[in-house]
């Protein structure tokens, strides 16, 4: 039993050590790669030197990006005036208005039948305009 425990403990230790060595190798490899890339970057910057045309293009790029961002914000603000969206909202509003108009007519009819009240009296008491009608 003691041999099995020691054997398992030893295998786990070896596995951990192997993983640590692999991680160390990977770290060294990535560190070397980083140094190499830093050197390439420094060489590229040195070769590029001062180029006024490039600097002007960089400034123009920044200006265009700012302009694009401003236009995108403006587009977001203008979306609330989208014709198709407004048409849908108008249709929803018309449907709701017609539903409430139908409710008013139903209540008027119920009151006429239940309490035997004339329509003109109901309209006057509840300030319902005589020209109330559905929206086309």
From TrEMBL:
<dbReference type="Pfam" id="PF18517">
    <property type="entry name" value="LZ3wCH"/>
</dbReference>
<keyword id="KW-0539">Nucleus</keyword>
<keyword id="KW-0175">Coiled coil</keyword>
<dbReference type="InterPro" id="IPR040661">
    <property type="entry name" value="LZ3wCH"/>
</dbReference>
<protein>
    <submittedName>
        <fullName>Uncharacterized protein</fullName>
    </submittedName>
</protein>
<dbReference type="GO" id="GO:0005634">
    <property type="term" value="C:nucleus"/>
</dbReference>
């Amino acid at each position: 039993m003691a041999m099995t425990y020691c054997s398992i403990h030893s295998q786990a230790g070896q596995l951990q050590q192997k993983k640590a060595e692999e991680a160390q190798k990977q770290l060294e490899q990535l560190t070397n790669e980083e140094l190499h890339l830093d050197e390439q970057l420094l060489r590229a910057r040195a070769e590029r030197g001062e180029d006024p045309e490039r600097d002007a293009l960089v400034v123009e790029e920044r200006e265009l990006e700012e302009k694009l961002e401003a236009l995108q914000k403006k587009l977001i603000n203008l979306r609330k005036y989208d014709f198709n969206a407004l048409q849908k909202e108008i249709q929803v509003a018309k449907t709701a208005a017609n539903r409430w108009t139908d409710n008013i007519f139903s209540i008027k009819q119920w009151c006429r039948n239940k309490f035997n009240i004339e329509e003109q009296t109901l309209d006057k008491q509840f300030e319902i305009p005589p020209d109330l009608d559905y929206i086309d």
